[in-house]
Amino acid sequence: MVPSEVDERKKKILLAVVQSFILTGKPVGSGAISRGLNVSSATIRNELGMLEDLGFLRQPHTSAGRVPTDIAYRYYVDVLMGSPRPTGRDAEAIERLFAAQTREIEGLFQEASVLLSTLTHATAIVFAPYSAADSVRHVDLLRLSGQRIMVIVITSKGQVGRELVSLSRPVSGDTMERVASFLNKTLAGTAFERIDRESVREKAKFGAAGMSLLDAALEAICEYIGSIEERVFIGGAANIVREMGNAGPERAQVLLEAMEKQYFILDLLKDLLSERRLTIRIGEENRLRELQRYSFIGTSYPVGHGLLGSLGVVGPTSMDYARTIGMVQYMAENLGRRLYDPKG
């Protein structure tokens, strides 16, 4: 398609068709467009025919109006749409999510995926990477009963681990406080990859009960660190079924089954880490076969130490691109601002 073939009138008509179809989901006739553009229906029909010849539109049935093709959505996003930003209400909803600084990071990722899916009416996916360069922020020791102790680890990125240990001998409250204080003094700010249990033990000066507690706590901390891995949080998977219902449930089922496979999601989101920019793939532009009847909008966000996470939404090709793009970008900006510590 040669850009010069799309003059200003065709641009206005194509914009009207795309916006109307996004809003209603119904084929757009010449009458509806002519009322908005103050152009005769005959002229509109002629222009619609030319846009169809150029590959921007198709006519499901001879007597029906036109619907946009993937090429039309790409042209709309690249040329016609303008600069998307979330509305005040949408922006406020995202900002409220990040207002509570005490929220655990894992809960934040899950809530971010759910909120993004709710706002966009699409399926939202958030990729949370693991970094060995993450560090210990704080350690707490909490007695549950007798010799059963809860070891609580808070990382610099806000993740919270809880590991239950059973001691072989009783330990006093004073000893618990001294061991917890020692662990915080020794480990606070230490990257996971640099924690050396033997080195920590050599610095300790406790009796038998204190050393037993220290060993158990160190083992629990290292077990938790070893359990942290890359995570994918999916919100609003049911939106795919709802939005694609008119196209037949089998199309949605293919995507839902694919989303259950971790490699599918990781491939999708890890692509964004290398691109480091907003990515919009429409229909057959998607490399993954399962997505070739959908659109994907995603971007990356900074986590720290040169590490990136990513997030995006999957929805019908007739999604509201301007609104969705604005919210994906704004969610990524806020998530990155919350997680990224330039000093960390």
Describe the overall structure:
The protein has 344 residues and is an alpha+beta fold. The chain has three domains: 3-80, Winged helix-like DNA-binding domain superfamily/Winged helix DNA-binding domain (Arc Repressor Mutant, subunit A); 88-129 and 230-339, 2-Layer Sandwich (Beta-Lactamase); 136-227, Enolase-like, domain 1 (2-Layer Sandwich), CATH 3.30.390. 49% of the residues lie in helices and 19% in strands. The protein contains 13 helices and ten strands. The protein has helices at residues 8-24, 30-37, 41-53, 70-80, 88-97, 105-120, 173-187, 197-203, 208-227, 237-243, 249-259, 262-275, 321-339; strands at residues 57-58, 67-68, 123-128, 136-145, 148-155, 160-166, 231-235, 279-282, 294-304, 307-316. It has a five-stranded antiparallel β-sheet with strand order 7-3-10-9-8, sandwiched between helices. A hairpin with a 4-residue loop joins strand 5 (148-155) and strand 6 (160-166). The two termini are 49 Å apart. The mean pLDDT is 85.
